[in-house]
Amino acid sequence: MFKVISLLKARAGIDRAAFVEHYETCHVPLVRELMPNIIAYRRNYVQAESGIAFELAPAFDYDAITEIWFRDRAAFDEALAVLMRPANAARMAEDEALFLDRSQTRMLVVDEHESEI
């Protein structure tokens, strides 16, 4: 499997409830429509006030960590190509501007390893 993680920051002026509501009811269906080949799509909403950090560590300033799985790199590349078509990219940007600070978005390709407990 192939996995990407996105770090997402809420736009200024939107509260947590509105951020989550928009993400779940508007953005998730749009992502599912514009990005074929997604196997799994998980949204993790950060509870910064409950976090544990080492002394002197900067505050974590993202509001959501998103995980998306694809069959393989080719499936991800295909999904990204579809998303980057001008009309699709414009729809995504328009929606993201409603609830995200797009300048802070980070997408990471990761090698996932899991251990049995």
Q: What's the helical proportion of residues?
A: 25-40%
Detail the poorly predicted runs: none
Largest beta sheet: strand ordering: 2-3-1-4
Largest sheet: 4 strands, antiparallel
* CATH topology group: Alpha-Beta Plaits
Level-1 CATH class name: Alpha Beta
Q: How many individual domains?
A: 1
Average pLDDT level: 93
Number of helices: 3
> What class do helices, strands and sheet pairing give?
alpha+beta
Instruction: Tell me the fraction of residues in β-strands, as a range.
Output: 15-25%
Order of helices and strands: EHEEHHE
Number of strands: 4
Compute the gyration radius: what is it? 15 Å
Query: What is the overall silhouette?
Result: globular
Distance between the termini: 21 Å
Query: Which architecture does the CATH hierarchy give at level 2?
Result: 2-Layer Sandwich
Report what the structure shows:
The protein is α+β, with helices and mostly antiparallel strands. The protein has a single domain (2-51, 61-110), classed as Alpha-Beta Plaits. Helices cover 36% and strands 23% of the residues. The protein is built from 3 helices and 4 strands. The chain has helices spanning 16-34, 73-83, 86-97; strands spanning 2-8, 38-45, 64-70, 106-110. The protein has a 4-stranded antiparallel beta sheet. α1 runs antiparallel to α3 (86-97). The two termini are 21 Å apart.
